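Hi there, hope your week has been kind to you so far. Thanks so much in advance, here it is:
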Amino acid sequence: MRQGIIDTLTAYTHFYKDGYVPPNAVDWSDPDNNVLFLSGLTVMTANPTLSIPGSQRQDEVTYKERMATAPWPAKPNGEPMRYVASIKQVMVFADSPQLEEAKEFVSFFVQPEILSQFVEGAQGRYFPVMPQLLENPFWTNASDPHISVAAKQFDSTRPLYTVLSPAYSQIQAENVWGIAIRSVSADGVTPEDAADTAIAEIKRIFTRWN
């Protein structure tokens, strides 16, 4: 497993070291991939929520002709990629001072016609969990160069590792892998040392949760 992490860090960070990634990418905040792409300063970026095309939907030329959404390439062994899918959940706390009102709102919000308005109004940022909503033309329009491509990703998905243990939530919150990638990309740390640091931190987190 350690060698696999080392190999992954080496392969992933070479894009930065070889100049395929903007030099300031290691300091990007959450919206900066959108900003750099829309400013024409990078030609391709990951965009899990379709926020980039969604922001340009009213400009038909830009939306349909100046940008495109592409699926991830196949795995190194040639098999198709299994896409990571997260599910947004609604929670009502039992000691909420407006408990009944909260329940009423959730009951209203999850009605198919209301939820449909919300997810379609979000321009494809979220896909509906109700299969019947995916039959709406908004999701099935083959001429849409972004949503139609994203919809195909749901043919093969896997959940985030947080479903296996809450410790993974802490690993994500502490950005363990992001720190490892940055340290190799920009700080001169070897993949071996970065892997050992990440492994030690993950073990510490799992020990706390256990």
About this structure: Residues 31-70+83-155 form one domain. The two ends are 21 Å apart (CA to CA).
